[in-house]
């Protein structure tokens, strides 16, 4: 199951971070990682804070696409908090996530934050070889589907044609347990 989930999880992460990076570039320009106003707005409450992550990665390269690829998923999740509603998500969410459900951008943003958190937790469990059998894998796959669909239904269609997790889940003896 873990092996089958890795491709959907990775694709979801790439799609989500690219959507968020597009919003950042639109709002702060192509060199957004070095924009002081943006950096000051990032949370600093923990050692895994978005600001610490950005400063660490941006201090080693001057290439924005490389920074986007190297930032941890927690950075992208922290962008989907209410602190960025007015500056990022209310003005730009519908443009970059055109296929998200019809609702106020702050409602959509909150749901995206929760889905990213769910997928991040799943990915971390898999990466650290921790058990995932007690998880609701169907709900994890649904969260992945929602995030990818919000950005691009065609990408979700591609994923659905190529992923194995749904088949592995359906064949699992644990699927029908109480």
Strand-pairing-aware structural class: mainly alpha
Classify the helix fraction into a percent range. 55-70%
Summarize the biggest pleated sheet: none
Note the overall shape: globular
Arithmetic mean of pLDDT: 93
Total beta-strand segments? 0
CA distance, first residue to last residue:
19 Å
The number of helical elements comes to 10
Residue windows where pLDDT falls under 50 for at least 5 positions: none
**Radius of gyration using CA atoms only:** 17 Å
H and E order = HHHHHHHHHH
The fraction of residues in strands falls at: under 5%
How are the secondary structure elements laid out?
Elements: H1 2-28, H2 36-41, H3 50-58, H4 64-70, H5 73-79, H6 85-96, H7 105-127, H8 137-151, H9 153-162, H10 165-171
Helix pairs in contact: 1-6, 1-7, 1-8, 3-5, 5-7, 6-7, 7-8, 8-9
Overview of this structure, please?
It contains 10 helices and no strands. With 178 residues, it is an all-alpha fold. The chain has one domain. Helix 6 packs across helix 7 (105-127), helix 7 packs across helix 8 and helix 8 packs antiparallel against helix 9. The protein is globular, with a radius of gyration of 17 Å. The two termini are 19 Å apart.
């Amino acid at each position: 199951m873990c092996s089958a989930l890795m491709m959907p999880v990775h694709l979801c992460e790439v799609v989500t971070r690219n959507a968020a990076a597009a919003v950042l570039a639109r709002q702060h320009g192509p060199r957004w990682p070095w924009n002081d106003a943006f950096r000051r707005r990032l949370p600093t409450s923990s050692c895994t804070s978005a600001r610490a992550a950005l400063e660490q990665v941006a201090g080693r390269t001057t290439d924005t696409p490389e920074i986007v690829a190297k930032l941890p998923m927690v950075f992208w999740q922290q962008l989907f908090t209410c602190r960025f509603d007015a500056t990022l998500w209310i003005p730009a969410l519908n443009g970059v996530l055109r296929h998200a459900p019809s609702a106020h951008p702050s409602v959509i943003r909150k749901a995206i934050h929760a889905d990213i958190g769910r997928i991040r937790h799943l990915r971390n469990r898999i990466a650290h070889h921790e058990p995932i059998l007690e998880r609701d894998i169907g709900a994890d796959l649904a969260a992945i589907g929602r995030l990818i669909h919000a950005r691009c239904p065609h990408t979700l269609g591609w994923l659905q044609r190529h992923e194995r997790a749904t088949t592995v889940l359906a064949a699992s003896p644990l699927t029908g347990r109480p």
